[in-house]
Amino acid sequence: MAKTWLITGASRGMGRELVEQALERGDRVAATLRQPGQLDDLAARHGERLWRRALDVTDTAELRTVLNAAFAEHERIDVVVSNAGYGVFGVAEDLTDEQIDQMIATNLTASIQLARAVVPGLRAQGGGRLMQMSSMGGQIAFPAFSIYHVAKWGIEGFYEALATEVAAFGIATTLIEPGMVRTGFFDAATRVPVSGPYRGGPADRPPVPVEQLTDSMEKTVAAIIAAADSPEPPRRLVLGSDAWTLMTGALRQRLADVEAQRETAATADL
C-alpha cells in the first residue's frame, strides 16, 4: 500500500534522495525546504503526489503552521522524517556565538519542536512512524566538530525518552545513524580555520575528503525506506559498516570505563 511521507530538509542530499525514491515507488510526499522551486523537476514528473511548502525549521511558529497544513491536507501522514540540518567544522573555542546558536537552533531545537508538533497529528490518526536523522556522530565524537555532536547527542537523548512517551499511541520512533555518506553535507559545511594554539593538534586536520566517504546515499535511503515499511522498526538504525565499527568500538570502551568503576561507585551509596 502506498504511503504518505512528510520530509523536512528536502532540497538536497539524503532529504532529496528520500523524496525521489518515495515518489518513484508510488508514494505521496509532503516536502518542506527553504526554496520549494528546487523540486520543480519532481513536481513536473509526479504532479499532485508531491506537496511542497517553504519552511525555515528554526521559525517555530512557521514550523507548526506548515506541519499542521500537511496533516490537514492529507488523509494520513504515515512517516515523518526530520532531516533538516547542516555542519560546521571548527574548534569549539574558535566558533562564533552566532555559529553555535544557529547550529543548535537548526540541528537540535528545530528537531525537538518538529517532534512536538507532529505527535498530536500522529496520535489523532492512530499512530505512524517518526524518524529523526541523527548520525554515528550521536554516539561518537571527532575533534573540530563539537557543536554538531552537541546537537546529535542531544537529539539522541530526547528521542530515547520520547520513544517511551509515545509508544502507547502507536507511534514508532527511529533514530537514523548513518556513517560517512557520499552527500553534499561535507561540501556544504562551514569550515572555521583553527587558531594558533590548536595548529598541529588533533583538530588541525582537513575535513573528510570526498574520496574517503564510504557509504552510498542511494543504499542508505533505501534502507531508511525499508525500516519505515517494517512492522517493528528499530529505535536506532545504524547504516554503513564504518558507522557500525566506530559506534560499537566507542560503546564498548564507554561500557568498560563504567564497569571498571563498580566499586568506587558503591562508595557513594547510602
Characteristic terms for this protein:
270 residues; alpha/beta; seven-stranded parallel β-sheet; two-stranded parallel sheet; 9 helices; 45% helix; 15% strand; SDR_oxidoreductase; Short-subunit dehydrogenase; oxidoreductase; SDR_fam; oxidoreductase activity
Structure description:
It is a single chain. With 270 residues, this protein is of the alpha/beta class. The chain has a single domain, classed as NAD(P)-binding Rossmann-like Domain (Rossmann fold), CATH 3.40.50.720. It has helices at residues 13-24, 40-46, 60-72, 97-124, 146-166, 185-188, 217-229, 241-259, 262-266, and strands at 4-7, 28-33, 50-54, 79-82, 88-89, 128-133, 171-178, 190-191, 236-239. The chain has a 7-stranded parallel β-sheet, with helices on both faces. A two-stranded parallel ribbon has the order 5-8. Helix 3 runs parallel beside helix 4 (97-124). The protein is globular. The model has no long low-confidence stretch (mean pLDDT 94).
Structural class: alpha/beta
| Shape descriptor | globular
CATH topology: Rossmann fold
What is the N-to-C order of secondary-structure elements (H for helix, E for strand)? EHEHEHEEHEHEHEHEHH
Q: Widest sheet: strand order? A: 3-2-1-4-6-7-9
Helicity range = 40-55%
User: What integer is the average pLDDT?
Assistant: 94
How many domains is the backbone divided into? 1
- Alpha carbon gyration radius: 19 Å
Oligomer: single chain
Major sheet attributes = 7 strands, parallel
Q: How many strands appear in the DSSP assignment?
A: 9
